[in-house]
Amino acid sequence: MRNLLVHLDASPACAVRVRVARQLAARHGARVSVLFAVTVGSADLPSSFSANVLADAARLADIDGRHRARAAVEKMVSLGGPEVDWSETTTASPLAALTRRALFADLLVLGKRAHHGPRADQLPANFAETVVVHSGKPALVVPDELSTGEPGRRIVIAWKPSRESGRAVAAALPLLQDADEVHVLMWDEPHDTRTHPESPLSLDTWLRAHGVAAQLHTLGRAPSRIGEAILAQTQALRGDLLVMGCYGHSRARELVLGGASRSVLKQVPLPVLLAH
Hints:
By secondary structure, the protein is of the alpha/beta class. Helices cover 38% and strands 22% of the residues. It has helices at residues 14-28, 51-78, 94-101, 127-135, 163-171, 173-178, 201-209, 226-236, 259-267, and strands at 3-8, 31-36, 84-88, 107-110, 139-141, 154-159, 181-188, 215-221, 241-245, 248-251, 254-257, 272-275. The strands form two sheets. Strands 3-2-1-4-5-12-9-6-7-8 form a ten-stranded mixed β-sheet, sandwiched between helices. Strands 10-11 form a two-stranded antiparallel ribbon.
């Protein structure tokens, strides 16, 4: 993990993403790049203005947000620690710009789109999930509010024998190797009628071969509300970072997520490392 790419918009939560990225970079000798990209909009401006006036005012608002975001990054860097490479776009859509830049990143650091408020129209719906699916790169989705501690000391893996889950664990390997504790949550699939389901030892063997001693938690038949069960178990184990697959696909412009992904990403109470 040598290159981290952080998406910035004009929300105060960007400072949390940059802080987490710089913490990870300091521990793993990585570079941090940020990309400021938002959708130019005028939803919060008076409709009595002409279209040209609205467009100009929206652009000025975006410039103001960009200045605040850059000032926040520069203030953080001035306190010491890893440098941050700044870039921005005012022409491409946030999804297109981030997907293109993701080609040269090992891990993306994203936030959740605000559902309400003055900045809700800066990003399309399901932004983080869509970036993960379209870019093919793993992403750490960071909540808007997070304690000042370093995430990644107690990592919880929500495991199922799938491509998405395997990619997420492989992407998280540098973090897993550096963690103090690693826990693996495993449920039997509701539709799995095999008498002898796949042994959890195969994952344990793979992790140990890579220097990770994980505690396995086999939890029986998966509940119908699996996402909520994952979050409850993670909280009980005092996990500070969750690793899981992002289960979904893109149909034109609509992203359809599986139950676990949808439930966890709706709440995002802790950093979640996703891969598709």
